[in-house]
Amino acid sequence: MFEKVLIANRGEIALRINRACHEMGIKTVAVHSTADADAMYVRLADESVCIGPPQARDSYLNIPAIIAACEITGADAVHPGYGFLSENSRFAEILEAHGITFIGPTAEHIRIMGDKIIAKKTAKSLGIPVVPGSDGAVTNDADALRIADEIGYPVLVKASSGGGGRGMKVAPDRESLSSALSTARTEAKAAFGDDAVYLEKYLGQPRHIEIQVIGDSHGNVAHLGERDCSLQRRHQKVLEECPSPALNQEERDKIGTIVANAMQKLGYLGVGTVEFLYEEGQFYFIEMNTRLQVEHPVTEAVTGIDIVREQIRIAAGLEMSFRQKDVVFHGHAIECRINAEDPHTFAPSPGVIKEFHQPGGLGVRVDSGAYTGYRIPPYYDSMIGKLIVHGTSRNECLMRLRRSLREIVVDGVKTTIPLFQELVNDPEFVNGDYHIHWLEDFLARQ
What we know:
Dna Ligase, domain 1; eight-stranded antiparallel sheet; five-stranded parallel sheet; 15 helices
């Protein structure tokens, strides 16, 4: 087992990883920018190293500074969390060259799944159902028109690299396709340095369903069920729940088995998430995230499995502590992403938290590095915490979530808490009757 893990991240996920390491008897190193010197994860780590100024490119994305921090502190492994360098295959290779273990999948698998076109081809070859679309990048409008005519309108133009909704445009008909291609290419080039785009059939009102998988170096692979991430704004997840209200047991068992078998064929190492659009009983692969997910706590709540602990064990060469037959799902869990944003305009709201109070009680978990007096910096993602609630049923979970949202206090900055207080009382959400466009429709009605 590792003696010391450097956590190449910040905020709540750095604190989450720090806790897992300490429970395993592993010492930790926190790296931080000058803007995060007073962050809770820095205070609770065994050691800390400042790696640069506030801008992420000069600190959390500064690979030489992170390698230097490993060498200074003697860290023998790095956990990248999510975001930043977590899906950077070059970073994984550089760590390996320095004799430092990357707590994540192989650089090859990161590279394969990081390119959406290659990922789609790989998924198809592994028996995973995919969305109808182009076999690769479309390089001219004539080919795009021919393919779109074959799969039928509307079509979705997507950037081959990147995500988060950038480089993604819908063409409702033949006349709008050329403009959608041009705009998507321009956005993709600006955001990712790569203007390659491809086409997919656009689904009208699908759910966003993802399957959590985990595999070790001894050939063991298991899936940990699904998460429903359909509540999104501009392709960014806002709330996640497990299990999905839209699936029956036969459907979840079937897609879980397909994904687990595919990952075994691939020889996948570590944790990952295979994401699908789901409509009218059909699953369509969209991408795979080769890292820990923001929403992993809802899976932990219903399975009782510490996913971060398993990540660390697997990276150290140990077997998973369970097998598929040992995975038992209990109850229902929902996660709300608490962002320092205006709940109506979603404009960031950095500043000082004047008062912070977490809800508590049975089945309530808060993953956050916030505290009274904490200054939220303006340089990074606006998420300041996650409220995760578990109950024996979805109804009990919703009742507990309503109570928790009344208890939580974040004063001094605007947050998305009022939005969640509205959502959990909306009849359609309460009935589980929503899709990936539902939240934007809900916001338009407010």
